Amino acid sequence: MRMIVKLRHLLILLAVCVAGTYQLSLPDDPTYYAGVVEHSVAEGTPKEQTSIISNAFRTIIESADARDLDIIVFPEHILNNRETATFVPHGSQNVTPCYATDYEVFLRNITDIIYPTYWFSELPFLTAVQLQEGWAFGNDVNLLAADASHPSGRTTGSGIYAGRSGRLTATINEMPVRLLLKAHVPKRRPGLPPYQLPAQIDPIFQPLLETPRYTKVATYRDYNVDIFTSVLLAADFLNVSQRLCHGSNFCCDFQVQRQAFAGDTSALQAYRYRLGAYLGNETTLIRVDRSEQAICALFSCLDEEIQSCGFVFPESIRVGNKHHFTSIRIGGTFPAAPRGRRLIMPSTLDGLFMPVAVAHYNWTETPAAATHPEQAIRVDLELLRPRNDLLTFAIWSNYYTELPSTHNLDHLQPHGGAPVTATSSPPAGAPATAPVGGSGMALTSTLSLVLACLLSHLWVKVSPT
């Protein structure tokens, strides 16, 4: 476990060294200049991999493109591998990879989070950029997230986020890449008004029958949706207004409007949609850690069956927007945090695996969730701008259960080099367990849990300024 800690510290120290050497922003500046790196995994022997990646990181640090940055964040795990890993304790030893001193703390006045990761994406709620932006929004903190780039292994998605102002820059890719993303991040200083980001001009909306979409980013499926209370919407629905309840204590209100595409759409397939509601502790995070969630969601499916949700159509199928969404309103009253910890965030996703921009929806909390964990909160999410393609539009919350996890992580381990299958459609006779990624390693799985641990243990509270 010490090696993992040291590696994380090494990456952060690399970032600090850049800031100490080339830092340009001054304490009174309204922003600092940050970079995050998404980087592919190297091939070769363990020693060769370490050499290749360390040289690549050094090249980035010393490049002209990075010279004016105050900080650079690199992804986790790609500097090391199974052969260079350290001992991971057995579950019976009561040791968790989410270190108590690092994560299970009550954070006050925290404004910026650095997050090196090797994250496994999961549809429909927990793909990388979708989760990063939602988490930063829910906690209203700046987040610098650097992910590895191995799309066929379910790992891609990095970005820089300014809390409730949304993403400053982000990327998710179908092919392995080496990218340096840069952005001026607003500083949050007590007693001063928040920095106003530059206004962006949106193009006039146009209904489009076919829009770009990703099919080569492998993902896990969120099997939690199978236990939601859910309703399948008609393939040609135009206006739906419905209250949906899970049990007797949690209900979600939905109002969804669409318009049909004016033209022939008979040659194309289209997603079906379900409304879903859930409150309980029978869920997991990537089928690893027990969780307690409350969710109000509109999410896509391939057909009428709930088992087809959490997939995208493969590249071989022409998919069309036979309808576009003109209005979506989702609301619900989310319970008080029984243990004083709760995260409530928007979870949205389009065909390119990117969230809906924060300027394109309205989010309200009554009263404010962060400052009233002891109270039930009314949350409403409203789409403000028409959309051609949506996979997910939801309010997602985590109540940080303390129920123990009894897993052994088997489903995240390689078995005989089995090939990775992109989550583009459910295989015939699909088993009840998630497919196994051929690129996973024991340490990869452990390190990928950092964000799962973030979801399970870390909660950030920023005192109002």
TrEMBL record:
Biased composition (Low complexity): 417-435
GO molecular function: biotinidase activity
InterPro entries: Biotinidase/VNN, C-N_Hydrolase_sf, Vanin_C
Region annotation Disordered: where it falls in the sequence: 410-435
Domain Vanin C-terminal: 220-402
Secretion signal, residue range per the UniProt entry: 1-23
GO biological process, any: chromatin organization
Alphabetical UniProt keywords: Hydrolase, Signal
Protein name: GL21358
